[in-house]
Design brief:
It is a single chain. The chain is of the alpha+beta class. The chain has one domain. 32% of the residues lie in helices and 22% in strands. The chain has 10 helices and 8 strands. An 8-stranded mixed β-sheet has the order 4-3-2-1-5-6-7-8, sandwiched between helices. Strand 5 and strand 6 form a beta hairpin. The longest helix is centred in the last third of the chain and has 13 residues. It is elongated and about 50 Å long. The protein starts with 14 loop residues before the first helix and ends in a 15-residue tail after the last helix. The N terminus and C terminus are likely disordered.
């Protein structure tokens, strides 16, 4: 059974209620150690407070001394798209994916990499809402541009699969996507048929959702065919943790799950 390889762990009492407020822009992320509002994703990612947090992040488990981490941001941010519920629901004109956040690549002095997720709040300012190990978001964006120039790179989070889509063509960018659509890819129509079969009865407002099984972000890996979750719920939770000053060396990590 294929499972998601990325999960977000958050700690702290009252996290979910605060997450909802942050997601709505009602609670600005202004706690100590949290970057101030920024007008661009790049400025949010490269703010001094963000770099200080990155130093702590890279120093987890003693991998490198915090003072020696010297994190830097490489290149511009990229929009990160996730499979759209509207596409799964068959809404006319709905694109296959929607932008959930932007990602910037951070690099430490010892070569460690991390992906900084930034999201725009209700006030129009960009804030860092998550730090994940590795650089998947940036790497797959570049890979997709090479495989299908001008295409849209997106992720199907339920199986942690990455694709690039242009016109009627959908190509896989990783092994999870290959297992889903084959090494040569598939048509957009056939891809829609697959995701409708997998998630069509698990959309928001479905009976599945009303039972409380969908619409959130599970902290444990989700099996193929589980609820149609999106990155928005994940960024809300980690955004709340940042707002509450809860970020720590072990708080948010990208892991392999089997």
């Amino acid at each position: 059974m294929t499972t998601m390889k990325m999960r977000v762990r958050a700690t702290g009492a009252g996290l979910l209620s605060a997450a909802a407020l942050v997601a709505l822009g009602a609670v600005p992320a202004v706690a100590a150690g949290t970057p101030p509002p920024a007008p661009t994703p790049e400025q949010a990612a490269s703010a001094p407070a963000t770099l200080d947090t990155l130093s702590r992040f890279f120093a987890r488990d003693g991998a490198v001394a915090r003072a020696a981490a010297r994190p830097r941001i490489e290149g511009a941010s990229v929009p990160v798209r996730v499979l759209s519920p509207d596409f799964v629901a068959g809404k006319a004109g709905a694109p296959v994916a929607r932008v959930e956040f932007h990602a910037s690549k951070a690099v430490a002095s010892d070569g460690q990499t991390a992906s900084l997720w930034t999201a725009r709040g209700a006030d129009g300012a960009w804030r860092v809402v998550n730090i994940a190990t590795g650089d998947d978001e940036i790497r797959y964006a570049a890979q997709g541009a090479r495989a299908l120039p001008g295409g849209i790179v997106f992720r199907e989070p339920q199986i942690d699969a990455w694709y690039v889509q242009k016109g009627v063509k959908v190509l896989p960018l990783d092994e999870d996507a290959v297992r889903a659509v084959g090494r040569n890819g598939t048509s957009l129509g056939t891809y829609r048929e697959r995701v409708v079969k997998a998630y069509g009865d698990k959309l928001p407002d479905s009976a599945y959702a009303r039972k409380g099984a969908a619409g959130g972000y599970a902290t444990e890996p989700a099996a193929h065919g589980d609820a149609l979750v999106t990155a928005a719920s994940a960024t809300a939770a980690v955004g709340a943790a940042l707002a509450l000053g809860l970020i720590g060396a072990r708080a948010w990590r990208r892991r392999d799950a089997t």
